Amino acid sequence: MVSPTRCRVVVVGGGVAGISAAVELALSGVPVMLLEARRRLGGRASSFHDASRGCWYDNSQHIALGCCTAYRELCRRIEVEDDFDWYTRQQWVEAGGRVTTIQPGMFPPPLHYAESFLGAAFLSPADKFAIGRAMIAIRFADREAWKSRTFGEFLRTAGQPQTSIDRFWSPIIVSACNLHVDRVSASPALKVFQEGFLAGTGASAMGIPRVPLVELYRHVPRILSEAGGEVRLGMAVERIEPGRVRTVGGGEVRAESVVCALPFEKAIGRLFNDRGEPDGRLKALSGVGFSTILGVHVQYDRPVLSHPSAVLVERGTHWLFRRGSVGDEFQAVISAADEWAGLTDEAIIGRVASDICACFPGAPATPRWARAVRERRATWAATPAFEAARPAPGWTPGGVILAGDYTAVDWPATMEGAARSGKAAAIAAMETLGILPQSGSH
Ligand SMILES: Cc1cc2nc3c(=O)[nH]c(=O)nc-3n(C[C@H](O)[C@H](O)[C@H](O)COP(=O)(O)OP(=O)(O)OC[C@H]3O[C@@H](n4cnc5c(N)ncnc54)[C@H](O)[C@@H]3O)c2cc1C
After folding, report:
1. Does residue 87 form part of some domain?
2. Residues 370-403 pLDDT 10s
3. Which domain holds residue 306?
């Protein structure tokens, strides 16, 4: 029998939540072992290698907002904060090619977008008036009180015409929360506007990584090893319980503190309490639905996209993100894409190409190269029922410490939510070890 490996803290799952927990611990001087089933870090926020093209592509474009303070702090700690470009201007492109730039103007927050919004060509005066009224309601809305109702209900209560929902509210919320306005809990949707859009130029700035996502984690193994810990890739875990983790193949890691940073659907069935029973905190999550995101990488034989990114108004394809600066290669993103997921690659690429042609007259009918990436379980569906079932991150007596974007961190499924939960888990681990955090967390 192989004798068990011992360490102070073991973190299971090397996504953003697990990385955040492990780095927080390492920077407080705690030796930590990070176990990840795949051969690379990053989980859902990572990249794949396209052998035919010899380069890395992200599973889908990931963006951060200025208000993602925990994620940005994590990036600073893993020494990659300079790997992002930040943008405060957004281009909204209609069929026919008309472009509206939404950008901060002369008024202070929360009115900083008022000038460009009033001039927006894709909205009618009636829509603008209605949206302005709803923004005032959003600013003062109580998110907790709206948690059990959908954002669609909120919009109807705020008297929003369908055109304003189709042209303005949906593109923002479907992209941010990956769910249609009539399904998503109003609470995370309100947060997007309260803490992003309305909070100030810095809060709503969009950060786009300049490197493939997988490269953002390049310093993590060194940071952990400097504190006496390590990252172990290709280590699938089959059972997690307080003090002990069993890996597939019969290995065992014993630790004073255990953090489970698996997605909840993977933790269910693997996570047990100190009485050997399935962890009750995840019970309410079994049966929860997911929502698909589609990323379509395209390359044309000439430049098509002159902006770093573009929102396509009232098209099935929601956003385009340029790769490099030429504009011939970019990624199309379709959120809440369950309806697309069953289509063939050919059909998906055809739909995206036709949306691009509609909004960029002069674009070739078909790209020179294209590749569709389906993430069917991109995020959990942030319905009112799900919001009510989220367990708190951290520790409860007799249980393992929980981390993951699904925990109740008051954020939708995002890298920010994952980073926050990881930090909360690390602090809980340090408390169980009797250590005070040292990396500036308190
Ligand atoms: C296509 C797509 C687009 C997105 N766009 C954005 C965006 O623009 N902005 C944003 O902020 N967020 C975005 N998100 C959401 C974001 O990626 C997630 O919310 C976040 O990465 C979740 O991190 P996590 O650590 O909680 O979970 P995960 O990333 O799922 O990490 C869990 C880890 O556990 C590992 N694991 C699983 N089973 C085992 C096992 N048995 N043993 C050991 N390890 C195991 C997994 O391999 C994984 O690495 C997007 C997600 C997707 C899929």
Report:
1. no
2. 999 999 999 999 999 999 999 999 988 899 999 9
3. 290-380
